[in-house]
Amino acid sequence: MKLTQLPIGARFEYEGQIFTKTGPMTAAGETGGQRMIPRYAVLKPMDGYTPPPEAEATRTVDEKTVLEAFETYHAIALRLTEGLGKAELEQARRTFLAGLSQQ
């Protein structure tokens, strides 16, 4: 477990000593004194602490659904602007669609 996964106040073992997390990269030893804990350090949590579960996979959306929603939005935007900025909206549409095709 890494230090960033522990909340402030959590106890852990590192290099055979017991520490309490006091900051993002610092901890206080049981014998006193502060110590910097490197990001690469592998720690053993004490007091039965378990880290929160891993974040779930990111949501994916079907390309057809995105395109349909975008075209609906684009049609409404063109109607609301009454032709003002139509060229800019069309260019923005082409840029958006080109960005999707690069994925």
From TrEMBL:
Superkingdom of origin organism: Bacteria
Protein name: Uncharacterized protein
Organism of derivation: Zoogloea oleivorans
